[in-house]
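Hi team,

Filling in the usual template for the complex we talked about on Friday. All components are listed, including any nucleic acid strands or ligand strings, so the model treats them as one assembly.

SUBMITTER: L.P.
PURPOSE: interface mapping
COMPONENTS: two
RESIDUES: 1011
SEQUENCES:
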Amino acid sequence: MTRSDAALKSRGGAVYGLDLETDGMLFGALVPAPVASGVLRSVDLTAARRAPGVVVAVGPDELAALLPNGGNAERPVFPKSRILYRHQPVAAVAATSLAEARAAARLVRVDVTNEPAFIDIEDRYPEWPSKLASNDPHVVAHVVARHGDLAAAFRTADLVHSETYRTSGIAHVALEPHACLAVVADGTWKVTTSTQTPFGVREDAAEILGIPQESLVVEGTWVGGGFGSKGAAFLEPYALLLAAASGRPVRLAFGYREEFLTGRSTLPSVIRLDTSVKNGTITGRRVRLLLDSGASLPGRDFATGYSIGFLLGPYKIPAFEMEGYAIRTNKPPFGPHRAPFAPQCVFAIDSHMDGLSRRLGVDPVEFRLRHVWREGDRTALYQPVGPFGAAAGLERAHAKVAEWRRNLPAGTGIGVGIGFWSTSTGAGGEVRLHLTANELVIEQAEHEIGSGSVVRGLVAVAERYFGLPTDRIRVVSTSTATAPFDSGVFGSRTVAALGRAVEAAGAKLLETLGARASMVGTPRLDVDGRRLVLVSGRTKTPVAELLKPKEREGGLVTEGRHYGRSGAIDATRAVEGTFYPYTDFTASVHVAAVSVDRETGSVKVLRYAAFQDIGTVLDAGMFRGQVEGGVAMGLGTALTEETLWGPDGRLGNPGLLDYRIPTIAEMPPVEVVAIEGFLGAGPFGAKGLGEPPIIPVPAAVANAVADATGARVVELPLTPERVARALKLL
Amino acid sequence: MPFTLEQPKTVREALQRLADPTGGPSVPIAGGTDLLLDLDEGRVASTRVVSLRRLPWNTMRWESDRLVVGSTLPLARLGTDPAVRRRLPGLVDAVDAVGSLALRHRATLGGNLGRAAPASDVVPVLLALGATVRLVALSGHRDVPVGQFVRASRQTDLAPGELIESISVPAAPVSSYVWQRVRPANDVSQVGVAVARSDSPSGWHVALGGVLPAPMRVVEAEAMLTQPNPSEAEVEVAAQAAARRASFVTDKRATESYRRRLVSTLVRRAIARALRDEASR
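RESULT (copied from the run log):
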């Protein structure tokens, strides 16, 4: 494996958001709302403005003077009246030092009523599944899909398996907190920020501030982990506002505690599944989803419509009815977390499939093989399933289960989970290639977030495409002012979509060079000593000779774009609400072996195997690392991670002492196996890998616990106490 | 919250600085692994932090059958000492349970005791072992049993102007500490159980952590353990007595009922572990 950022990062040379500095820079601090629900009466900035070092303090009343039309009325920077969640920013200060800014923020007097907070979705909807009135003010999204005669399926069934699953909130825990540096000068707003989506931040921040996108420049930095937390604009509008108010550069960064308290994390859910079976085959399924959406604004919930599809796959279900509600509560808005909400859905669906097969006395893997999608099948919403490695992965998993049954001690529980994902190649992107006499430069907007998709993934595509060695290819990341558009590093799309853009730009490059060299057919690039050469048959021409004089400096430039098709949903099935089409399915079949302490409920993961449908492996080391990382993160979701929300909307564990991410000591040996050949829409048939490896982990672990003990834990995470309850120890 | 750091070189100077109110309230710091969190979040309102790291207390020695540990000795030193492993296996169990290895190179025995966290892994074993604390003030020394020193959650017998100089622990080759956590590594114990068998008379000591108001001995359970090698039935009765006696609460780490359920299991396991260690020698 060769990563161009490895040396830089190991020497501490990479500049992250928190490292940003410039002359005359001020430090920003946000003023958090002291209640989870209430009406804001006033924000008094007087004392803060008089505090040492303070240059500017801004609150709701200052927006009108600082922003065109006072900013976006629907999405105001600061709330005008209603407080939606505890720690919602209600004002901001900038001072000459961080300590001064924080001290001054504490002096801001926030006068607010304290109303009862709505925190636990089941407090309001205890009779669940219930008929929620569509005009219930707490429902921010309602989705309904159905197909076939479910009533008949349930009436004629041999068995209807019903179970309710609950999942907890989880935080991202990126090593680097959110951080940005804003400068406003001469009508140009500029923010340098640790982000997964420079263009997304530009669009979002401009909308919130009410300024034209063209007047805002967003430049990325090295990102110390994203996991979905650094997608949309977050700190940037506040920093830009402070910069505009003070006329000086302002750095605004979260501390680790603020990251927990104010961050947009995944929130709790309740999932109810009823599945009918006739002659050993599933005939129908009812799905009910109640998702805590936090303080999401109506129309801005994406998770319900996106994730509910995961509750209908990857299995063939002839008749179904599904209904999902996103419920607004007094928590920070729901935010995407690596494979947003898919691990939770798959925990429910594959716990359900596992429990059902055990009730039927059928091997759980065989039962899944009976129903799993294969190429040519249709999803619940009638999208075609393309090349899909689930069945192949299940066959391998079957053999692994048998091997472990032979080799591992009696009492070991073995469980299987299948995750599936849709690589979001539909989200488009563009790159610009610069070919000089000696190297190829890939210019684009994204900055490396840690997975390697930018610094290694795009280089690996170019290596294969051009046949060039790694050291002749360089990726550069430029700002939204110069880089061609890209959607962002999310949805496992970076290599799949931007890699295709590299190919498209590459084709133009070779075509142009071939024409200049009067070559017949498609030439290729090669290395000859220090120089790059163009090769066609036996003809070899130095690239330097093919460059026009004005290209000697910056190279021959071509641009390439990839805007994939996103497919269509059958509108007769998707009855109400917004659903998202899936494309380019990826399967992750995982097998976990666990031991369970039957007196305490502690679960130890002994062995783990991951069979990953990947289409084509572009870099074996990166492939392995990404799968191992997904498994590690998924084990946290499975066993230890949960945000603990008090009835007053206070987060009880805003730090790593009681928000427990896995340590190396809990990490089992992981066997990573690529299932190649089910080609995806990415370059050389590659499929996205950012998110898939986390998805089936909770399901595989829960099924292993059920296998070991006969007891099913229906709530994530599987803490020792929850397992102890399932074992009826208390 | 910002604070100033003072680094006295002698015990006398440290005691004087702590007694001097100039510059605001002061607090002693050893490893700081617990205190710094409280300072950072404003739970401890001191503006002056007096470091004990230059005092001659980073020590460990045997005085016949007692281990005397200087209060600023890093916990990691205890965990790796062969004599301590042999003569005080329960203490090593407890020390190894604290945080991560990196943290144990920083954290100290005196700091753990002085901070008196209700979930301390170290206090229960010091109780079971019958350890005593040596306190020093400008006026002189006094020795206090750990059971009297730790009064309640975050409350000790330490008087203003006093510091913990050392902890004296009698050897107990049959001793152990076991715990339960959500995450095995680097987590706070939900419940901890320490046991130690003293030679004369052949009595067992049983102490619990994760209980309120502070880690405690359970004499009701100890009374049931009359033999050096108690029978399974005896152990079971003792385990049940411990579960009945202790006062648990529900908090973010565990419910009251789960903690109570754990205690009997952990008492059985602790005794078995202590005896297994003995059998393997």
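MY TAKE: The radius of gyration of chain A is 27 Å. Residues 6-115+178-253 of chain A form a domain with the Aldehyde Oxidoreductase; domain 3 fold (CATH 3.90.1170.50).

Thanks, L.
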